[in-house]
Amino acid sequence: MTAAPGPPLDPSALGLRAPGPADVAALRELLGEEAVITAADRLDGYGRDETENLGFAPDVVVLPATTAQVAAVLRLASAGRLPVVPR
Fold first, then answer.
1. N or C: which end of the chain has fewer CB within 10 A?
2. Is 32 left (phi over 0), alpha (psi -120 to 50) or beta?
3. Percent of the chain at pLDDT above 90?
4. 73 CB contacts (<8 Å, ≥6 apart)?
5. Paired strand residues for 36
6. Beta strands of 1-87 (E only): which ranges?
């Protein structure tokens, strides 16, 4: 038996917030312009996976190239209370 998915969780209920322009600028500083995606036409493809028929476009996608960059992104997200969904 499979349970029906519940409503999406509101990130603010966990004390999280959406990334703002300053966060995007900080990510671009860490990773470079090409590794930070904010264009709506490119974000849509990152809002789905193969597990369910759900789609939620992210606010921003980052493509770190090294483990050091991954760690830096996670430090920034943790300090700024930004939600992270690994893929």
1. N
2. left
3. 62
4. 27, 30, 31, 62, 64, 84
5. 62
6. 36-37, 61-62
Task: Please state the domain extents for the chain.
Answer: 18-80
* 52 closest CA partner among 2, 86, 15, 1: 2
pTM, 2 dp: 0.81
Class of domain 18-80: alpha beta
* pLDDT one-digit tens code per residue, 26-63: 999 999 999 999 999 999 888 877 766 666 789 999 99
Which residues does residue 62 pair with via DSSP β-bridges, in sequence order? 36
Q: State residue 61 phi and psi, 5-degree precision.
A: -125, 135
Residue type, 55: G
| Confidence at residue 6, expressed as pLDDT on a 0 to 100 scale | 66
